[in-house]
Amino acid sequence: MSELIQKVYALIEPMIDGTDMFIVDIKVKPVNNIKVFMDADSGFSIERSVSIHRRLYHILEEDGSFPNGDFSLEVSSPGIDEPLAQLRQYTKNIGRKITITDKEDKDTTGMLTEVSETEVTLEVKKLKEKIATPVVIPFKNIKKAVVQIIF
């Protein structure tokens, strides 16, 4: 983890301490474009994003990390099509339909029903079956997991 990413992490953590918000990822591009991806157990609203952005931008501007203000900052949720990255995101999405791609590139789609420290359980319905079957997938076998949008 780069020094700048560690610094941004350290600046945000006191802002979200005691809340249901959490950091999903921080990325820094070579042109000093800082992208902070956050989520919250109750949802990461635009108001929360704006609040974190304003406070963090002000701190970075004031502390001289970027001479001449040569940086940009984005604070947002990861986006609905982004893979789940943390245990907390899996827990937040219990009851939703997700597709898990395992390390052998096999997809399994089902309702996320349980999450533990080591594995997830999906209720998977086969095409002609009426009853869903529980499928347990260890985290170590998950390549990617994406929440499915149902309209």
Could you walk me through the main structural features you see in this protein, from its secondary elements to its overall organization?
This protein is α+β, with helices and mostly antiparallel strands and 151 residues long. The chain folds into 2 domains: 3-76, RimP-like superfamily, N-terminal (GMP Synthetase, Chain A, domain 3); 87-147, SH3 type barrels. The chain contains 3 helices and 8 strands. The strands form 2 sheets. The protein has a 5-stranded antiparallel beta sheet. The longest helix is centred in the middle third of the chain and has 17 residues, at 46-62. It is elongated and about 65 Å long. The model has no long low-confidence stretch (mean pLDDT 92). Keywords: Cytoplasm, Ribosome biogenesis. Residues 11-81 form the Ribosome maturation factor RimP N-terminal domain. Required for maturation of 30S ribosomal subunits.
SSE map:
Elements lengths: L2 H14 L4 E9 L3 E8 L5 H17 L9 E5 L10 H6 L4 E6 L4 E9 L3 E6 L8 E6 L3 E6 L4
Parallel strand pairs: 2-3
Antiparallel strand pairs: 1-2, 4-5, 4-8, 5-6, 6-7
Concise description?
Belongs to the RimP family. The mean pLDDT is 92.
Category from helices, strands and their pairing:
alpha+beta
**CATH fold type of the largest domain:** GMP Synthetase, Chain A, domain 3
Number of strands: 8
Total of domains: 2
Reported for the largest beta sheet, the result is: 5 strands, antiparallel
At CATH's second level, what is the architecture of the largest domain?
Answer: 2-Layer Sandwich
CATH class of the largest domain: Alpha Beta
Q: In angstroms, what separates the terminal alpha carbons?
A: 38 Å
Sum up the overall morphology in one term: elongated
Domain Ribosome maturation factor RimP N-terminal: 11-81
InterPro entries: Ribosome_maturation_RimP, RimP_C, RimP_C_sf, RimP_N, RimP_N_sf
Family: Belongs to the RimP family.
GO cellular component, one term: cytosol
